[in-house]
Amino acid sequence: LAGPDADNVRLVPPPRADDAPHPMHIESLRRRLRAAGAMPLHEQRVLRDWLQRRSRDAGRRRADDFLPKPLREALPAIDAELDGLARLVSTHPTDGGSARLLVALADGQTVESVLLPRGGLCVSSQVGCAVGCQFCMTGRSGLIRQLTGGEIAAQVVLARSLRAVKKVVFMGMGEPAHNLDHVLDAIELLGTEGNIGHKSLVFSTVGDRRAFERLPLGPVKPALALSLHTTKPALRDILLPRAPRITPAELVALGEQYARATHYPVQYQWTLLEGINDGEDELDGIVDLLRGKFAVLNMIPWNSIPDLQFRRPSWERAREIARTLHRRGVLTKLRDSAGQEVDGGCGQLRARALAAGEK
Ligand code: SF4
């Protein structure tokens, strides 16, 4: 394993609402609607139609009987732009009712979304990622660009063209805390006009203090998933080389504070790597950190990636670990990364498409 090679990553500033051209920024969309004469009720109606995919079915009714004329005239261009924010390139079903989607953005960059069982959807928040987790394909490319709130929400709209979406987890490509403004914009929009319950929006982070400061202040408070992966600070610095320098103990303390404030348990993510973080010492560390906490530990055996030196532990070993932790007082769920609800599982479709020249 390589050692840590940087301190905290600096935030890449998101594009401003008045920058042009840019993929749809939620505030610039709202501004355009208002400039076309939309009152708050009209604005809400247009956003709901988009997010809940009612525009095509109800477009004629909407245009005819409710909206002011300048807005009706502006809508075809706005609808076309919204449609172009996220387009389906290919669908890749996996076992267990999941499907990975390769999604093209308006500038031709691609990200991945994953349809999860029971109406879940995993969305990407960045093209690439700066954190550089050693076990993750996305981390290998570095950060290419931020997604806007509109592009994040558009992944939900696209998925809804395939089936219902009731839960959105921000665990796809990218570190949401490094694109905080746009991710929080998307969360607010989905939690208000997108018909998704607040607890069914899951903000995931490797543990950035800025996220802990901002999340409790928003009008929509999402559930929280935190990437733990090890209880050892030095190993964490190696596995997550450009994550903020935060110890596992501090991460859990901040998570617990948020869980108690919101009354939702925190989901701790643990990618199981054979011989790295599956030993008895780590299990003792997990019990010390998480027993008695308002938390669920999601253990996910690593999803093999060619050229990376990690190994996936056997399913029997993973089951034994989960059982042991459960017995010792830590609520533990063993998940299969085929469902991709997992850090580090993303990025392979995009990498394959790039290699094949699809972009
Ligand atoms: Fe980024 Fe998540 Fe991959 Fe880590 S696991 S490099 S945070 S996308």
TrEMBL record:
Q: What Gene Ontology molecular function terms does this protein carry?
A: methyltransferase activity
UniProt record, GO biological process: methylation
Superkingdom field: Bacteria
Q: Which cofactor does the UniProt annotation name? A: [4Fe-4S] cluster
Q: Which UniProt keywords apply?
A: 4Fe-4S, Cytoplasm, Disulfide bond, Iron, Iron-sulfur, Metal-binding, Methyltransferase, S-adenosyl-L-methionine, Transferase
Query: Can you give the residue ranges of the Radical SAM core domain?
Result: 115-341
Q: Which InterPro entries match?
A: Aldolase_TIM, Methyltransferase_A, rRNA_lsu_MTrfase_RlmN/Cfr, rSAM, rSAM_sf
Protein's UniProt keywords contain Cytoplasm: yes
Q: Where in the cell is it found?
A: Cytoplasm
Q: What is its main location?
A: cytoplasm
**Which SUPFAM superfamilies does this one have?**
Radical SAM enzymes
Region annotation (Disordered) maps to 1-22
Per the record, the similarity remark reads: Belongs to the radical SAM superfamily. RlmN family.
Record's PANTHER family? 23S RRNA METHYLTRANSFERASE, RADICAL SAM CORE DOMAIN-CONTAINING PROTEIN
* UniProt-recorded name of the protein: RNA methyltransferase
Source species of the chain: Noviherbaspirillum aridicola
